[in-house]
Write a structure and sequence with these properties.
Blueprint (H helix, E strand, L loop, with lengths): L1 H19 L4 H18 L8 H20 L5 H13 L2 H25 L5 H6 L14 H15 L1
Length: 156
């Protein structure tokens, strides 16, 4: 049940990122605040890992995303998103999420140009920032959602 809530929260972030190329602070910081409060209150992460695991996962998420932010490849919302996942899970989930997001992004680079023209115009408009011609600056959150889903199915 907890993983479903995490997936729904990330789906909201991913949808907003794909539609607006922006994720509201209310979603990212709100999720981080809830994950941190739960961690401190329960002594474990949202997905049941120890508080120490949550701390390490948080640091791992920052280690993976801050360099990308510094190089201009990731936005601040992407860093907050991954940090929140770290606070809510464990190191394996963060690692799986990040690797899964990378694989999903590569798959989209390959099949996106073939799939995009056959999608309905309405769907293309709603997901306009995932357009293959924008491949150098596509939203990261939709791929993180796929990575989290794969990670939860594989690890948990």
């Amino acid at each position: 049940m907890h993983s479903l809530v995490l997936l729904i929260w990330l789906a909201l972030c991913a949808a907003q990122d794909a539609q607006q190329r922006h994720i509201a602070n209310a979603l990212t910081l709100g999720g981080a605040a809830l994950a941190l409060v739960y961690l401190l209150w329960a002594g474990s992460t949202w997905l049941g890992a120890s508080a120490a695991q949550g701390g390490w996962a948080f640091l791992l998420a920052l280690a993976f995303t801050v360099p990308g932010y510094a190089l201009g490849r990731l936005g601040a919302a992407d860093v907050k998103l991954m940090a929140t996942i770290g606070l809510a899970s464990d190191t394996l989930t963060v690692l799986g999420c990040f690797v899964g997001a990378g694989v999903a992004s590569l798959v989209w680079l390959v099949i996106g140009p073939k799939l995009w023209p056959s999608m309905s115009q309405g769907l293309r408009h709603r997901l306009r920032y995932l357009a293959p011609e924008l491949s150098k600056n596509t939203p990261f959150a939709p791929f993180v959602w796929i990575g989290l889903l794969a990670s939860l199915l594989w690890i948990h």
